[in-house]
Each structure stands twice: as C-alpha cells, then as structure tokens.
Design goal:
The longest helix is centred in the last third of the chain and has 20 residues. This protein has 303 residues and is of the alpha+beta class. The termini are far apart. The protein is built from eleven helices and 14 strands. It is globular, with a radius of gyration of 20 Å. The protein has two domains: 165 residues, 2-Layer Sandwich (Uridine Diphospho-n-acetylenolpyruvylglucosamine Reductase, domain 3), CATH 3.30.465; 103 residues, 2-Layer Sandwich (Enolase-like, domain 1). Bound molecules: flavin-adenine dinucleotide. The site of flavin-adenine dinucleotide has 30 residues, from strand 2, helix 2, helix 6 and strand 10.
Length: 303
C-alpha cells in the first residue's frame, strides 16, 4: 500500500515550524483535498507531498470581534460554526448555512473554501462584498491581504510556502447597510454546488445611494465584483433606467462558460429585484426572492 507522510502538529507554532522546513500540503477539513486526490473506489487518496493536518489546532478555531469591531474568524472554523455564530456578518452566515449538507458543513473550513480558489466556492461572494481580508502567518510574522487579491485566479492563491491562513477578518456587516440580499441557485436545496450565488448590499442617504455592493460566484473564472459597476449608482437616486445600466454593466463583467444564458438571465433578474425593491424602502431589510418572484424565469421547483 502507498504511504502518505502526515504531520499532526499540536500547536500553531509547531505547524508553522513544519511549514518552514517542509514542502507540505495543509489539510483542514479535507473535503476538497480528499476529492481532488482521490483514486478508484476503495483505495485511499494519494498525495504527492507530505500532508500537514491542521484541523485540530485550537488557535484556528475561534470567532471573535476585535477592537475595531471587525469579525475575526479562525481559519479552521467550519461552515456549521460560522452559520451558527451571531457575530458573523449576515451574508457570510447565509453562504455557510447553504454549503453542502450537514456532514460537509461540519468539516469544511473557511480557509479551505478560500484556498481552494474555485469560482463556485460559496464564501468568497460575501467575503469580496464585505472587503474581507485573510491573515497569513509564518514564523517570520503576519500579513493581511484582501480575499479578492489573495485569490489571484482560478485555483491560484497568493500563499507563500512557509505560510498558513490563520484567520479571516471581515470589517463590514449588515449593520453598515440598509438593505441586504443573498441568494444561491442550486439544483437542490442541500448538497448542491452553486449554479450561481449573488450577494448585494445598499445604503441610502435620503433618496441618494451612498453605498452599493454586488458580487457573484460561479459566473466566471473567479468570484466577480466590480467597483466600477458599483460607482454607476453611488451618489445617485435609483431610477428604472439606472437599474438597467447597472445590470448591463455587470453583464459585461461576468463571463460564465457553462449555461451562460441561464446564469446571465438569473443575475439580471436578481439585481433588478434587489434594486427596485430597495428603492421602495420596504420595512424588511432582507430583500428575498419570495413573493412569486422567480430567479430563473421558471417556476421554482417544489420539494
Ligand atoms: C459533497 C461536497 C459538497 C460540497 N458543497 C459545497 C458547497 O455547497 N459550496 C462550496 O463552496 N463548497 C462545497 N464543497 C467544497 C468544499 O467542501 C469547500 O471548498 C470547503 O470549504 C473546503 O474546506 P476544507 O477544510 O475541507 O478544505 P481542505 O480540503 O482541507 O483544503 C482545501 C485547500 O485549502 C488549503 N488549506 C486549507 N486550510 C488552509 C490553511 N489554514 N492555510 C492554507 N491553506 C489551507 C489546502 O491545502 C487545500 O489546498 C463541497 C465538497 C464536497 C465533497
């Protein structure tokens, strides 16, 4: 039987020491790695480098709020822990609570979801929207990078060989906005890899939009957010014509390869829905996709 060398450090310091001297693969929940390295049924996965098992490191398991009011999520926190935490921003809780099914949510970590750098990953959408940063730690010290810069391109991240992601810092939350939106389009209600997710948030100053953010996953080679598109509406009053301008501009940003018509049309509908409902200032701050509104243009499936 082929052997896999595995390191199981007991502390973060020990893990970083191993990282500094060994070319190894960090393994947290293993839900991506065990699939990407799988072999035939009944045969253990194969790894071409030693594996550094970091899933039990206590230093990576905490969720807290720092002195600046930013939510700091330990890299090893699972989707279930994130979904259940009251201090985690709303958009991220939604994404975490709809990942996979229960068993997966108990093992999949936020760092793994980011480091996997899949355009279909669910947490990068909210993380891009809220200007979140990853904290990267090595024996030499720490640096923080926007998640949107850390994910360089499809399956490529800006991680140095001696570093680990140790935390995700989220500076903004629903408290910074008047209306919020998050929706995942999948083939099932659970265990569905996203066909599309859309995150939106808006703030008004009187009738004028003072902040607007929009990000989408599964709509191109990486998560899409465009500050240029957002600027089209900031400083203005929402009109139907302006909504169409934003929709057309975002359509230029996304580049879905599979089912492009479906993904483009669903994206257009969700932006139109959010901005037009928000402009009416409803009481409910969460603008959802109920009330007979169909994201896809087709009747929603009944479960
Ligand atoms: C059945 C199934 C359903 C799924 N459904 C969804 C879904 O609905 N939505 C979704 O977004 N994803 C889904 N996934 C993908 C996967 O579960 C997630 O991407 C998950 O968050 C990965 O986390 P992990 O801890 O398991 O990562 P791992 O598999 O342990 O690692 C993934 C990558 O991250 C790196 N890594 C992990 N932790 C660190 C760290 N601290 N520092 C540096 N690098 C690190 C690893 O080296 C590896 O490259 C699904 C997967 C399966 C198998």
């Amino acid at each position: 039987m082929e052997e896999v060398r595995a390191y199981i450090p007991e502390t973060l310091k020990e893990a970083l020491e191993i990282r500094s001297r060994t070319d190894c693969i960090p393994l947290a929940g293993g839900s991506d790695l065990m699939v990407s390295n799988k072999r035939t049924t009944g045969v253990a996965p194969s790894f071409d480098k030693p594996v550094l098992i970091i899933r039990n490191l206590k230093e990576l398991k905490e969720i807290s709020v720092n002195g600046k009011g930013e939510c700091v999520i330990g890299a090893g926190c699972t989707s279930a822990e994130i979904a259940q935490s009251s201090v985690v921003p709303w958009h991220l809780r939604q994404a975490a609570s709809r990942m996979g099914a229960v068993a997966l949510r108990n093992s999949a970590t936020i760092a793994g979801n980011i480091a996997n750098a899949s355009p279909k990953g669910d947490t990068p959408g909210p993380l891009y929207l809220l200007d979140a940063r990853v904290r990267l730690t090595s024996l030499a010290g720490e640096r923080e990078v926007l998640v949107s810069d850390f994910i360089v391109k499809f399956k490529t991240i800006d991680l140095h060989p001696d570093e680990l992601i140790t935390a995700v810092v989220v500076p903004l939350s629903e408290r910074n906005f008047d209306y919020i939106f998050w929706h995942k389009v999948g083939t099932r209600k659970a265990n569905a890899i996203s066909k599309l997710t859309l995150s939106q948030a808006i703030k008004f100053d009187g009738r004028i939009v003072s902040d607007y953010r929009l990000s989408a996953t599964a709509t191109g080679a990486k998560t899409n957010r465009s500050r240029e598109v957002e600027k089209l509406i900031i400083g203005k009053e929402i009109t139907p014509a302006l909504i169409e301008q934003v929709i057309d501009a975002f359509d230029e940003v996304i580049s879905p390869r599979a089912m492009p018509e479906f993904r483009r049309e669903a994206t257009r509908r969700m932006i139109r829905r959010f901005l037009s409902v928000a402009s009416e200032r409803p009481e409910n701050r969460v603008i959802d996709t109920f009330d007979g509104f169909h994201v896809t243009g087709q009747p929603e499936p009944v479960f």
